[in-house]
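Lab meeting minutes (informal)
Scribe: AK
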Amino acid sequence: MNNIKNIIFDLGGVFIDINYQKTETAFINAGVINFKDLYNQNRASSVFEDLETGKISPTGFYNEFRNISSTQLSDTTIKSAWNAMLGDFLPQEINWLASIKNKYRLFLYSNTNQIHYEAFTALFQQQTGKSNFDNYFIKAYYSHTFGLRKPYAASYQKIVEEQQMLAAETLFIDDTLVNIEGAKEAGLQTIHLAPPLKVSELGL
């Protein structure tokens, strides 16, 4: 890594624990036995992509999910199972993030959705007593409001252009390899944060 001036971080698996298996298990227990075919860490069906890029509302998602899963699950059941993957924020990593705030220009880029955003925002406030996780960054990019999502190279290029950064001076950190590959295609320097490696251990 050379001449890093900007860092773009992923959220899930970096600053908050994510366990996809919990959501898969919750849906299977609710009768959606093929959930893994519909959504996993590396691939999502069009319904989930639409939710993550803000093309459909949570209500629209619940309706579409019932269609693709051939179930009559309630909105509440779907919401609960969908949020099951969200764990706790990682205090050590957040403290580390605060410690480098004046060293780099910091950004967040997360594939997420309105349902998860509301859940982890409330969790952050409950867990830390602070108002907003976004305050650690110059800007937090969430796919459902950004209208773009990882791993598409154009999404990284859009952030670089909007923030008037040079891709070669920008580091992207994510725990999902396909997202790393998209960032490389866009010309960013990258670190694949493969578990159990923690971002605070990178020596940045």
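Next up, CB showed the second protein from the same session:
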Amino acid sequence: MGKTFILFTFLTALAIITLNSYSDGPAILGNINGTGGPGSGGGTCAGCHSGGSGVVTGTGIVLKKKSDNSPANGKYLPGETYTLTVNGTHANPKFGFQLMALKQDSTQAGTFSNLGNDKHTMVLSGVTFVEHHHTLSRTGNDYTVQFDWKAPAAGSSDVTFYGIINAVDGTGSAIGDVVSAPFNLTLAESTSHVNEFDNTLALHLYPNPARDILYISLREAGTYMLTLYNINGKVAVQRTAALYAPGNIPLSLIGLSEGNYFLNIANGDKRQTLFFLKQ
């Protein structure tokens, strides 16, 4: 009877270990590239995790220059350090993720740092993966994780980030989890530190702080793309506006939470980012 109980206990423990084996990340525990990107063979974390309801929405990768919090806007400056944010949303209370950054020849692009205690890196076939060190918890209704990325040296050409999120139900079983579709972000190499933000576009934003309406005072007529980001790098408002003479464009802030925002203003190749406080 005692031997039977011991055997049952051992098998139960083994099953629990197996079910939780990737709670520390698939790369470090299983040498697995689950991003769906190059080197994965098209495979994702869904090969082990499934059975949950719904889909992971709002997935994306946002990069902001660490020195001034300005968005990358589709380009990176060689050698510059960026804060990288991975986002997603699902009802499951916990999540994991995996991400890599590759040059066009599928070799490693840049370096990762400032991971904290809940993330780690693992090198597989010369490529560095960033992933959860243990299952992560939602922030409100969102999955958000941040760390730093230092861009590669000049001459590296385009860089593409490949990521995936696994929404887990916290039971320790792979059944009941929901894996996102693979997502990616490509940044072109910038050849100039000057042309990233053209300071001839906007005179200023007012009032600042603003409550219901923000006015953008512009020097030139034209069609402008206005993209408003919250402090976590998520797009809060995006729209186009036509200005037929130098003047002001109003932007409604109704429905937005109080806090710090930054507004990217684009007109052709000209871009500028300005910051303001929503009250």
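CB comment: The chain has a mean pLDDT of 84.
No objections, moving on.
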